[in-house]
Structure formats: C-alpha cells, structure tokens
Amino acid sequence: MQELIRRPRRLRTSPTLRRMVQETTLTPSDFVMPLFICHGEKISQPVGSMPGVNRVSIDVAVAECRELQQLGIPAVILFGIPAAKDPLGKEGYDDNGIIQQAVRAIKQAVPELLVITDVCLCEYTDHGHCGVIVDGDVHNDTTVELLVKEAISHARAGADIVAPSDMMDGRIGSIREGLDEAGFSQIPVMSYSVKYCSAFYGPFRDAADSTPQFGDRKTYQMDPANSREAIVEASLDVEEGADFLMVKPALPYLDIIASLKENFSLPLAAYHVSGEYAMIKAAGRNGWLDEAKAMEESLLSIKRAGADIIISYYAKEFAQRYQGK
Ligand code: PBG
C-alpha cells in the first residue's frame, strides 16, 4: 500500500459523485445557432462540406427558428446569400436585402428568439473580401462607412444584436455611434473582437460562396501566432463600446478565450467555426471517433476555457440530445 493521504480517484467512484463535483455544464441556453439564408421558397440546400447544415430560404428558416426556440436555444446568428454580388456588397446594406427580409420574418413569427446578424461584406462582394478594395487591399475607413449602413439597416429590420465580423479598425465605435444616431441606442454590439486568419473557415466560405477571389485575409484578420495582440483588439473594442467580445475560431484558441475571460468583464462568446464542425462530422461519419462524445467534449472545453456563449453549428444537435429528442 502507498501511504497516500490524497487520492483524487475517491471523487470519481460513481456517476452521482462525478456529477456532484462536475465543474462545468452545458445547456441549450449556452448556444447560438448559425443559419445561412438564401432567396427563394421552400429551399433547403445541403452544404457539401458541412453535413447537416443547409442553406435555407426564409420560410424554412422561420420553421427552423420555431424549432430552435422550442429546444431552448436563445439565439440565432444569420448569414446572407445575396441574389447578386458586386464590388461594394450592396445587398448587405439594402433594406430589402436577404438578411433584412429574414430578420423581419423571424421576429414576427418567433419574437422571443433573439436574432443576431453578422455584419460583414464578404458574403455580398463579388471579390469575396470583407470590404471595399482600393489598390489591391481592403480600404479600412471606406469599408467602415458601409458597415455602419449595414448595421443600421439590420437594426431597422428588427435585429436584436449586431455582430461585426470584418476586423476593420474603429468599426465598433463607428457602428455604435451610427446606431445611437439612428435611434438604436438599445441595440447591443457583439464584436468579433479577436478573429484569426484561419483555415477553419473553409466550409463556411463554401456555404456563403465567399472565398476571396485573390489573395487572403491576412491584412485584416489576426495572425494565429499572436496572443498579446488579442488583448489590444479586445481593449479597443471595450473602449469603443462593444457589449460582447468574441474569440474565433474556438478550439485552436482556448488559450485566447481563457486570457480574455481573465482580462475583461464583458460577456464572452466563442465561435466554434465551420471547419471545427466539419472535422468532427467527417471523423464521426467515417467511424473514426464517436461523434456525439467528441462534440460534447469540444463544446464543454470551450465553456471550461471561459466562453459564456458558444456559437456552433452543433447547437441544435446538442439541444436535441440534451432534451432527449
Ligand atoms: C464573415 C464571416 C466568416 C465567418 C463568420 N463570419 C468568414 C470569414 O471570415 O471568412 C466564418 C464562420 C465559420 O467558419 O463558421 N467575415
């Protein structure tokens, strides 16, 4: 016999005891479900690289939102697939654009469900970049002006929260000012504060058809090698009036989530992105790992690291399992 006073295994002897000492729990209310909305009717078009995720028309999205709300999910985040793309991403800030129409329909049908809108131009530009191109690069301040128009247009349609994902400098302050001047001082801004230039967005770009047609996003999204820079970005967002901070992607950046949690007091969201979802799906479908367990472990890790809110394509599946459906 070893003479051990401390035996941590004592607290692992039964499921009940393990549950009693469990430090982190997940419930459907931790989640936000992303939806891709397209024009048309009765459309539910599978996204090849994201099994289980579809591009849906507004009528289908409304039905989906009802279901999500009944499953206990508090919010959706909407991404738009426009009818046409152009260099300035005009449909993004058109009051009759796909997102504006979708927000109106969802808020009318399921008013209790929070609707968050992704504020960015990459889904709407023909070159696939997140803003206006001048001399081969995204021009910061011109882009910010359009993002302000987009955010106000989303708020006018009835969005509950706007979430800028473009990574332009100063956009949070400008959007805050624009919303306030337009009479939307009560609409919170969820900033994609710390958004890395990541390979894990690949499947999303399939879904939104938003792959940059030249170059990459390195002049605006962050270098995966950097962590102090995350503090700089988040500090600026706090100063500029953000109501939520976000880290994106999630699993490869758990250290960043933990660091933001320690350094800031605003609610913290983490985006478990398309590639993170696709990896687990693919391995699960191949029988290489247990998909449900890998999903839960991943999502739990994101919460344990410090996220208060998890944006994930697994939100619905998690909630269905949680509710025993
Ligand atoms: C728009 C945006 C992207 C994602 C969310 N908002 C794509 C990108 O930056 O290329 C990615 C989300 C995901 O991969 O699930 N800028």
From TrEMBL:
Residues binding Mg(2+): E233
User: Catalytic activity annotated for this protein?
Assistant: 2 5-aminolevulinate = porphobilinogen + 2 H2O + H(+)
Where along this sequence does the record place binding of 5-aminolevulinate 1?
R205, R217
Chain positions recorded as 5-aminolevulinate 2 binding sites = S274, Y313
- GO cellular-component terms in the record? cytosol
Residues noted as binding Zn(2+) in the record, renumbered to the chain: C120, C122, C130
Task: Give the E.C. number(s).
Answer: 4.2.1.24
| GO terms under biological process | protoporphyrinogen IX biosynthetic process
The pathway where this protein functions is: Porphyrin-containing compound metabolism; protoporphyrin-IX biosynthesis; coproporphyrinogen-III from 5-aminolevulinate: step 1/4
- What does the record give as the active site? K195 (schiff-base intermediate with substrate), K248 (schiff-base intermediate with substrate)
Query: Molecular function terms in GO for this entry?
Result: porphobilinogen synthase activity; zinc ion binding
In terms of InterPro entries, this protein maps to:
ALAD (IPR001731), ALAD_AS (IPR030656), Aldolase_TIM (IPR013785)
Kindly state which keywords UniProt assigns to this record, in alphabetical order: Heme biosynthesis, Lyase, Magnesium, Metal-binding, Porphyrin biosynthesis, Zinc
Quaternary structure, from the entry = Homooctamer.
Q: Which family does it belong to?
A: Belongs to the ALAD family.
Q: What is this protein called?
A: Delta-aminolevulinic acid dehydratase
Question: Whose protein is this, by species?
Answer: Desulfurispirillum indicum (strain ATCC BAA-1389 / DSM 22839 / S5)
